Amino acid sequence: MREWFKKNLGLLGFGVWMFGTLFFVIAEFILKISLDSSILMMGFVIMGATTTIHDILNEKYFTKYSEKVKNGIIVFITSTTIGMFFILAYLLI
């Protein structure tokens, strides 16, 4: 499973961003439902986090650090992304 994440996590993040953008465009322009643009920002934040984690797993960043430090950085990025997601979701309400 880790190998799948090493290969496809950046693509998964891009898909989340595109899904959020497509959802916003369809709701706003086709269905005429007014939405806050925080949906777009949530998708972008998730894409940025998954791309960064993808690069850490593929050893483009932090090559000199141990696996324990890299895992700590990944946990920090994940928890920060979840926090940003909930803050932006709160702004939608």
Summarize the structure.
This protein is an all-alpha fold and 93 residues long. The chain is built from 3 helices and no strands. It is elongated and about 50 Å long.
Task: Describe the 3D structure.
- The chain has 93 residues and is mainly alpha-helical.
- The chain contains 3 helices and no strands.
- The longest helix is centred in the N-terminal third of the chain and has 29 residues, at 2-30.
- The protein is elongated.
- It starts with a helix and ends with a helix.
- The relative contact order is 0.15.
- The model has no long low-confidence stretch (mean pLDDT 87).
What key attributes describe this structure?
single chain, 93 residues, mainly alpha
Secondary structure layout plus pairing:
Elements: H1 2-30, H2 38-57, H3 67-92
What average pLDDT do the residues reach?
A: 87
- The shape, in one word, is elongated
As residue ranges, the low-confidence spans are none
Strand coverage percent? under 5%
Task: Give the strand tally.
Answer: 0
Distance between the first and last residues' Cα: 36 Å
Give the helices and strands as they follow along the chain.
HHH
The rounded Rg comes to: 15 Å
